[in-house]
């Protein structure tokens, strides 16, 4: 790049020299011919030519500008221009950098989750097996025998791997913790071409004989967090759900799984699945479908052919095993769809894209506000620099050249902002990495700034720089030659002002959208914080237990829970203790189909142990709680909530009534409890049925206990459980308040983001309004002076300025409100029952914007009102 | 003072160059010489100042240049009018005529 430009410059110089010398030589020759002495002729020729060097410089300026070096010149010029107004540059760079940084952060996160290619061998020929579902494609899961058929008979794949997630209690160094890992086929790592960070990975040899290969590979992140990155980990043993495994290696940092966001703690071979899942039937049964499959296309087989072959294979398997179908479920197996490895199936992919889209919308608004702000400021600068431009036109610069130079300047500005933005993005992604998601599944979002992300930011900076720099650049270059002497003709001034008005109105509108979003999210959040099922949630603690993984059946599990309850209740500081199937905050309780007095209903249903209501602080209104006497062989009893009871028996009398559970089973209502605020979208309490744990078939329950205050009992609870069953992990131990905080994390993050960016947008909009109003009134100084001279009172002038600002604000508020209303309607589902048209939020945000606008206008208005007519008129 | 002259010459010099080139391609020296001859040596410009003007007009696309052989067989750069140049010439001529008519009107004794 450098050398050719340098050569061209040399060539241009040479040509100019040649041309000018030719002129002088010809002139000399003419003088000689006219009879002058040679020396006199040469002297005279040089004299009449004028200053040779100056002419050459001027020529070079014109010529040089059309080549590559003009670019360097423009950059130098632009840099000087920016350095000359540090205030403008700082504000502009900051307002843009925030937007670019935020957008880059969102992009890098989406990139990590959705778009970055997997670090596996020849990913192009690897396809995951999905099926066509009612809402787009979804993961196709198969049984272990099905998987063997896929490997043996499909013809579509050269090789097929299978995997599934495994939820386990991982016991290491005398401590058991819940861990989320993967059970994979022996060819999993070889097929993906992954190399270990340490030791070895699993091989086909580890997947030969069921139960005979107790080896495990540790995920890199888990190796770092639980083992401190200790190289001596290879050869150590750990226990998974009570079974001992030997660690043979550590997976590499860059590879987690075929979904890069899912970072398993461990990988064990499929040959050990009976141990990990405590389910020996998995090797034989075609009924339990849980394996996800990914295959490498056989040479010469197209994706479409493979899809057809697999669909046929599935239907053949179905036909060969009529026991897989009940009479009602006679639908043929769904069609197979192959998706590039790592891509999410349609239903999940759409949801993720939706989230990404929402985030992009928020940061896009910030970016737009920043851009509008900077464009407005540049427009004002362009006006100030009209004089400079006119002079340069006179000196021989073309308009195109001026536009290009202005664009270079704005491009430079946006690129600097882009660089600062990338730095901000690095900080923001680091901050994001410290947030733990409220899920048991280990997410690893490696949102690093790679080449793709950098390219994105650069492109973003350049595109926005060009788009928003164009209007000011065109305005600047429109300078008239006459502009040196006179002011630009009036109509252009009006047009320019109108453009700036548009920018300010746009800013106010976008700011309103952000602030309304933040307001709605905040209100929804406050509402969500009150969804505790009972009273005094800060004293209630929970932890999930999963003895099912250790092979416990119902009877053994009930005995274990009985012992756990006794031990925990005996702890000092524990007031009461109970169990519940799922402590789902924000709904998601299972529903069950019941029949009451001949009417069918699908209320939500929870399985709870005795003392649950007391523990959570839910009042028993009538009847009794579950008791130890409600055993598995005793008559079935249920407790219903108020809504359920009123629904069927408005005038009380629900006690003693019976509810049908199908298959001839029915239960007696023995109690009525108050409606808990169980649901986040709790516009209305829903009917709820509680079933006794002792009469259910559940094995995995969540322990809940209420403390009296004082030191937390968590550690003691952990040892109590460990003493009873060392391999049982305590899952997600936390207080009820913490559980609610976790459940509402997405809304808290969204609210905080919208709020923070709303404030940034507000600050930018204030700057924009202030700049515009001061600027237009500086332009109108003469007119105002004239008005004052003609008898206008200062109050009138003040009002004039304020009204102009207010008009802009109101226009922006109107547009923004319409925009926000439309957008939030699309997002109502996220708002916990706060209406999208929540008037209070809109009104307060609008009022805030009006106040802020008036403040921004106040200073320029006061200045305008103080204009001394004599000075103002003399200025003209 | 100097700038005033340059400004005054700005439009005029362009017009003179365009007029000269409208009769056919010439190199810079001949352009200068012809302007001097035509104006009966009244418009004596510093000859060098012609070149930045030529470069600028080329940049604007009014004229094009090409290296060729001069009448005494030396390499010289020849300028010719482009279509845009012809249009510009017509326009500037009109403007000039209007301005000079106006000036004459003003100067005519009352």
Q: How many helical stretches of chain B?
A: 4
Quantity of strands of chain B, as a count: 3
Largest interface: A-B, 30 and 23 residues
Q: Outline of chain B, from the CA principal axes? A: globular
Rg of chain A, alpha carbons: 37 Å
Shape of chain A: globular
Multimeric status of the protein: heterodimer
Helix count of chain A equals 25
What is the mean pLDDT of chain A? 82
Q: What structural class do you assign from the helix and strand content of chain A?
A: alpha+beta
User: Span between N and C termini of chain A?
Assistant: 50 Å
The main β sheet of chain A shows up as:
7 strands, mixed
Tally the beta strands of chain A.
Answer: 25
User: For the CA atoms, what is the radius of gyration of chain B?
Assistant: 15 Å
User: What fraction strand of chain A?
Assistant: 15-25%
Structural class call of chain B reads: alpha+beta
Distance N to C terminus of chain B: 31 Å
**Uncertain residue segments of chain A:** 482-492
What is the mean pLDDT of chain B?
A: 80
**In which range does the helix fraction of chain B lie?**
55-70%
Topology diagram in text:
The complex is a heterodimer of chains A (876) and B (110).
Chain A lengths: L1 H32 L4 H12 L2 H13 L3 H17 L1 H30 L10 E8 L2 E4 L1 E2 L1 H10 L3 E16 L2 E10 L3 H5 L5 E2 L15 E4 L1 H8 L9 E4 L2 E8 L15 E4 L3 H5 L13 E7 L5 H18 L15 E5 L5 H39 L1 H9 L4 H35 L17 H27 L12 H39 L11 E6 L8 H16 L4 E7 L9 E2 L2 E3 L2 E3 L2 E5 L3 H5 L3 E4 L13 E5 H7 L9 E5 L2 E9 L14 E5 L8 E7 L6 H11 L6 E5 H8 L1 H35 L1 H9 L4 H33 L12 H27 L3 H7 L1
Parallel strand pairs in A: 5-10, 7-9, 18-23, 20-22
Antiparallel strand pairs in A: 1-2, 1-11, 1-12, 3-11, 4-5, 4-8, 4-11, 6-9, 7-10, 8-9, 13-24, 13-25, 14-24, 15-18, 16-17, 19-22, 20-23, 21-22
Chain B lengths: L1 H20 L4 E2 H11 L11 H11 L2 E7 L5 E7 L1 H25 L3
